[in-house]
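Problem 12. The chain below contains 220 residues. Write out its predicted structure in token notation.
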Amino acid sequence: MRRIFILTVLVGLQLIGLRGYSQWKSYIVGPKGDTLNCVDNKELKQGRWVNHFDEVRGEPGYEEEGVYKDNRKEGTWRLYSLQGDLIGVEYYKWGMKDGVCQYFGMNGSLLREESWRALNPDKLYDTVQVAEVDKLDSYKTVVVKNEGAAVRDGTWKFYDPSTGTVARTETYTLGKLEKPGASSTTTAAAPQTAAKPKEVLEFEKKAGKKGKKVQDGSTY
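Solution.
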């Protein structure tokens, strides 16, 4: 009886596992046994994904990790060089960049900060709040036609990789360049390299990044 009971439990667990995977048309299994790159039966990307891009026309290859929700990127995505270095952190909403995205050099220094605003792709027009240029802490409502892409919105910062100081800034309001300018990096004292961003420090605390080995779990 005990043997029959154990066999019944094992069969039940296998059926549960098969039922869970049956919702995916394809997937891969990561090095830790986690399920990645899932495509559901509606051909939509879901859950955690790893995308690999080879070098193209002199542009270096990279990998990106993050989450898809109904075929749209959502939340935090991290970019790595093919050598395993963290080179970018991006934020997504509705499949488009939203918020401040950061990009790093190979030594972990901050190279660039981009500020984006995502517009709801399910709406032909979107209503957003923007700051009044000439009034402190004052905002106005603006109706924006949705062009199907995120727009530059906020301050973009470009850093001098040798000093870590801001070399240039650009300010945008819903895609319109408002205040182009340059920030001088010349000071009386020798400039010092800025502290590494939090994302880089957290990445460096972890063990060295290894190449990903995955198993194809296609259910075609």
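Discussion. The two ends are 39 Å apart (CA to CA). Students who got a different answer should revisit the alignment rule from Section 12.3.
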